[in-house]
Amino acid sequence: MTTFLVSIGIGLSTAAILSLSAVAFTLEYAVSRIANFAHGEFLTIGAYAAYSGQTIFHQNVAAAAVIAAAAGAAAGLALNFGLIEQFRGRSAITVFIATLGVAIIVENVLIIIYGAANVTYGFGQGKLHHVGPFLWTTSDIEVIISALAVAGIIYLLLQRTRFGKAVRAISQDRALAQVSGIPARRIIMQTWALAGAVAGFAGFVLADTVGTFGPTLGFGFLLLTITATVAGGLGRPYATFGGALIVGLAIQIAGTYTSSAYQLVFAFLLLVLLMLFRPNGVFVRRSAVAVRA
Amino acid sequence: MYWVSVITEAGIFAILALGLDVIWGWGGDFDLAFYGYLALGSYLTFVLTIGKPTPPVQYILGFHLPVLLSILLAVVVVVGLAAVIGAIALRNLRDIYFAVTTLGAVSALYLLVENYTPLFDGYNGVYGLINPGQTALNLTYNGYRIVFLGVVLVLLVLAYLLVQRLSRSPFGRMLRAVREDERAAAAYGRPVFGAKYRAYLFGAALAGLTGGLFAIFISAFNPSAWTPQELLVIYAAILVGGRGNPRGVILGVFVVYIGFIELTRYLPSPASRPDFAPAARQILIGLMIILMLRFRPEGLFRERPGLDRGPVPPAPAAAPASQRAAALPGLTSEERARREGDASKAARRRAGKTERVGKTE
Question: Taking CB atoms and an 8 Å limit, are B97 and A279 in contact across chains?
Fold first, then answer.
């Protein structure tokens, strides 16, 4: 029973990071209608930016988080401006392949700058705490609280601001939004910056929880992110949090009872099952009819 | 001997690319599991040929079969795996969903092979298939390598002829019709899933064969030999040569492999940064993919689907005519999207600054 509760605790922490990454992924999809394969690279860029920044700011966690988010936002803007906008009107799969090319480029540029070997933060995980039935380190708690905070901010942004209204309009019909006087290009730019910032921050917390990381950090996390996104339903930001919860808990519990080496195998099998039976997300009643993204 | 090895490798990958082109070029399915089929074919060729493992090395089977029989069996198993993955991924899923599902499947396979050592000895991989049949054929080491190159080239020509023949056949045209417009093809009575599924199995069979050849070529195989990057190089080669055009695909592979191996040999590789040259090579591959997609998606050689040149049977006249109609446009989906894009751009110019109604999906 204790093992089970501990695995749920770790699962919640994983789900928190996953939800950050997945909500960013789904925001990108919502406004641009493309699956961004270079999304994992936003996480990696955030993690490395924080790594570069930590010496300047003397191991200040908050400063490192801000740097990671800023670097992620810059990467999001750059990708939207340099690639997504250039490929407008092309089929979704073409843009997908192009972002795959971007992922390869970014990963190898990071290898050239930082080397292929893993690097480590100097922050430490903090002490172990008993919170209710769970066992969490200080950074676990920070991760969960920050994920909840980000979720709240995104909810308020999308529901209570003009920007959010515009994002929702564009995600439903870009042309119609444009005709109604919404500056679609600018809103999409801002959305990519927001998504990049969230992803960069997610990369920092992911790297911090794992301990050491290398240039493939984000790419390895991408399939988990996609699994969580699909579980929630692509392009549905709130449902994504539910999807992340399901995936995070499922892989940690499965991993605890077999071997942690196989937890990603479970994630991918889960992805295949979702695609088979619930390609529109587990929260949608509609059964799996032909999905053509 | 250096060139023998370079050309052999390019020849093997050209066969692989021909198989992938049937799936992606003709069928339009962006398959990310494809390199897994080569890997499985390669692993199986090893464990069926090299005999029992000596502890602590461990792997399954460990037979002493003749190498040709091993490759044949490997192809059968690979097609079996492709039948499962294809049945899941091709039934209802398209485009990104298909790509992501195949990526999930191959990642699960990869992690399983890497972590579950009783299968193929995990990270260490399998090795020890050194020039099978060299003594029987009474050849020197170098002589064997040259003969092997000859075998690969003969197989490449055979694969080319087969694919070329298939390209002009009703099956090839049906596959392209399905790619261009599934609903229209289905309305003309074409089995959409059946066409895609058969193409998928055919491509996987070629990948399994390539895995066997690859096993003989490098005589060792472990997880670092089938990272996702390897597949991207094949896709880049197809993009450069011309998606859907078998001749272009072969040319693309030779251009990318030989051109890149030769070009990147002159990259500086300082001792302090041993990662520099391979990383720079990957960056060039990524750039090539993006630039080709952006500026010349049809590649060096345009796709040329064969038209129905045979005599048209008098009755029923409707069927062949509809086949022709489906195949005639001769445009890849990319080109069509671009032309539509151009037209809509003009329309947008006329209509002021309103954006095109989003049919990018």
Answer: yes
A58 class by beta-carbon count within 10 Å (0-12 exposed, 13-18 middle, 19+ buried): exposed
Question: Exposure of A287 by Cβ count < 10 A (0-12 exposed, 13-18 middle, 19+ buried)?
Answer: exposed
Q: Tell me: the pLDDT tens digits for B115-157?
A: 888 888 888 888 877 777 777 788 888 888 888 999 999 999 9
Return the number of other C-beta atoms located less than 10 Å from residue B313's C-beta. Answer: 9
Q: Cα separation of A95 and B293, whole Å?
A: 9
Structure tokens given for B119: 């299968």
Is B289 in the A-facing interface, judged by CB distances under 8 Å?
Answer: yes
Are the C-beta atoms of A231 and A246 separated by less than 8 Å? yes
Chain A residue closest to B235 (CA)? Answer: A97
DSSP string across A23-72: HHHHHHHHHH----TTHHHHHHHHHHHHHHHHHHTTT-HHHHHHHHHHHH
In a domain, B302, yes or no: no
Enter the pTM of the model.
0.83
**A156 contacts chain B (CB < 8 A):** no
Question: Treating both helix axes as pointing N-terminal to C-terminal, what angle do A138-160 and A2-32 enclose, rounded to 10 degrees?
Answer: 30
DSSP track, B19-58: HHHIIIIIT----SSHHHHHHHHHHHHHHHHS-SPPTT--
* Shortest CA distance from B233: residue in chain A: A101
Tell how strand A128-131 and strand A134-137 pair up: antiparallel
pLDDT digits (tens, 9 = 90+) for A235-275: 788 888 888 998 888 888 888 787 777 877 888 888 888 88
ipTM of the prediction: 0.85
Domain range for B207 is: 2-226
Phi and psi at A130, nearest 5°, equal -95, 110
Residue B126: φ, ψ to 5°:
-115, 155
3-state class (DSSP) for residue A79: helix
Residue B173 lies in a domain: yes
C-beta of residue B264 within 8 angstroms of C-beta of residue B277: yes
Angle at B250 between CA B245 and CA B253, to 5 degrees: 120
Tell me the fold of A2-277: ABC transporter involved in vitamin B12 uptake, BtuC (1.10.3470)
Question: Average of pLDDT values for B196-203?
Answer: 93
Number of domains chain B is built from: 1
Residue B263 lies in a domain: no
Separation of CA B276 from chain center? 28
Q: Where are the beta strands (DSSP E) in chain B?
A: 93-94, 126-127, 220-221
Residue B92 lies in a domain: yes
From residue B180, how far is each of A56, B25, B171, B240 by CA, in Å?
Answer: 55, 11, 14, 21
- CA B336 and chain centroid, separation: 24
Q: CA B230, CA B248: separation in Å to the nearest integer?
A: 20
Name the residue in chain B with its Cα closest to that of A98: B290
Residue B289 to chain A, least CA–CA distance (Å): 6
Question: A272 in contact with B at a CB cutoff of 8 Å?
Answer: yes
List the domain boundaries for chain A: 2-277
> Is the CB of residue B92 less than 8 Å away from at least one CB of chain A?
yes
The one-letter amino acid code at A52 reads S
3-state secondary structure B321-353: HHHHHHHCCCCCHHHHHHHHHHHHHHHHHHCCC
